[in-house]
Amino acid sequence: MSATRLARAAKPFGRSLTCLNSTGKQRFSTSAIRRTSTSGSSEQPRQASVWSYSGVMAVAATAGLFGWGMSEFRHGSLPKTMLFDSLYAYPRYASMHEMEQALREIRQEIGGAEDIISTDPDDLHAHGYSEWSTSNPEGLPVAVAYPRSTEQVSTIARICHKYRVPIIPYSGGSSLEGNFSAPFGGISVDFAYMDRIVQFNKNDMDVVVQPSIGWQDLNEQLAKMESGLFFPIDPGPSAKIGGMIGTNCSGTNAVKYGTMKDWVINLTVVLADGTVIKTRRRPRKSSAGYNLNGLFVGSEGTLGLVTEATLKLAVIPEEFSVAVVTFPSIRDAASAAAEVMQTGIPVAAMEIMDEVQMKVVNMGGATAPRVWKEMPTLFFKFSGTKAGVRENIGLVQKITRANKGSNFEFAKDAREQKLLWSARKESLWSMLALRKEGEEVWSTDVAVPFSRLADIIEVSKKEMDELGLFASILGHIGDGNFHESIIYNRRDKAEVKKVEACVKNMVKRALEMEGTCTGEHSIGWGKKESLLWEVGEDTLGVMRAIKMALDPNWIMNPGKIFDRQS
């Protein structure tokens, strides 16, 4: 349904679409909607993306009506002539009147000097639309809640459960598959005020944190305490712990340190009805009962809201270094990467960027005055003892040379480390900076076993090049995970279809090689069909049964991972 049709659908409902502030009066804003980045900064919108206040409120309000209408249709309360496409598979959600009543009850119960509920159109847009995401289903939340504690989150969930109001968790806002979109309206729960270290246990090498602390902020605070410890999972710089748990994210360090699931000791979770649970206690290992950590990590907020997490920490290595090496082809680079892993060399990170991506970095100028060779390139990080780092650099150099690698550079000090790694860190921002009016970047990922890495990258790159669009390959090649990034014109339907077909082919190719449709971006709204291809209907049935047991009203981040019925 287009935004125009949504706006038209909203018109007959008049007063029921009014948003109220804590005094019960109408609350308006005349500012145009700005596109807000995940870091919180805003930029001037491209003309095609400017939203008016009335447009935002119509879409947000109608999303709630739409969700309610779909379920009424499914339960036979509305005329059969009303069409809701494939989205009939959802239960009855709150009407707009019920959503407004839920907001009033939340305000009354939580009270306090500060109103934790926002209906500001800028907030609604920022919590329902993502600049980075390849999937942005139409619809916005009707309100954003900013809780300060687990108790307040529990209150919000209990009242939303009572009125069947959808709940969408939000932390860093940097996900790429429409993970925090609000297709059925509801309340976005933003943990921005829950960003503290609750408890640091230096001798046990763990830390208890709230969900909105960023991994970089956490490491900065650990460094200020001179702890000698750090948290090693390193996705995008704006990522927060809550979202990292929800997507089971990873990053450049995954080849040595694994993914998010490997660093979670326990979780405090608010369930759909407001019940608060703790998944386990604080020892590093336990075989007591079900592994609930494994259930909630990667569940994308569809089973509960994480309000605290106890995380393992690692010792900061004695020595670091970085190396960069170029190759004549992407297959040569991928083959070298696979051999490094198969040989058992303990690299801390191993990243790949093709010649297009290296050109992007040069064009963006973010690493100036450094100019990079525009060839397929591998980036290595080494860590450990000084002797160990020297030895591993030599072993990697030998393998890359045998696979036609050249121009091998390694950092001799911290300044050179930062310079050599800068191209990898600036890759996404450099790609985004190249967009023209009406263009977007489609960024998605897959992962395959090491032995098939060179095959899938070579074939996928060939298909991308045949699109005739600006497209590149990069990724965490050390664990078989790589990304396609394609710039396309969102207004050109034929071009969009070509890109969609290319991405689907990459996913199917990965599955044929016993890989996965996503190594770290997760499913969200955008890859539900891919998940069905990967695991099959029976396995999805098990997932649905778990979801129904914990969230029978289907209010926790609905529409993500899978639909209620196939």
Brief description of this entry?
This protein is of the alpha+beta class and 566 residues long. It is 37% helix and 17% strand. A hairpin with a 5-residue loop joins strand 1 and strand 2 (42-43).
Your description of this structure?
With 566 residues, this protein is an alpha+beta fold. It is 37% helix and 17% strand. The chain has helices at residues 3-10, 53-74, 96-110, 121-126, 150-163, 215-224, 241-247, 254-257, 292-296, 330-343, 355-364, 386-402, 414-425, 427-433, 453-466, 493-512, 528-550, and strands at 35-36, 42-43, 117-118, 143-145, 167-170, 187-190, 197-201, 206-209, 229-230, 264-270, 276-278, 305-312, 314-315, 319-326, 349-353, 377-384, 406-410, 439-447, 471-475, 481-489. The chain has a seven-stranded antiparallel β-sheet with strand order 17-14-16-15-19-20-18, sandwiched between helices. A hairpin with a 5-residue loop joins strand 19 (471-475) and strand 20 (481-489). The longest helix has 23 residues, at 528-550. The chain is globular and about 65 Å long. The chain starts with a helix and ends in a 16-residue tail after the last helix. Mean pLDDT is 84; it is low at 1-53 and 67-88.
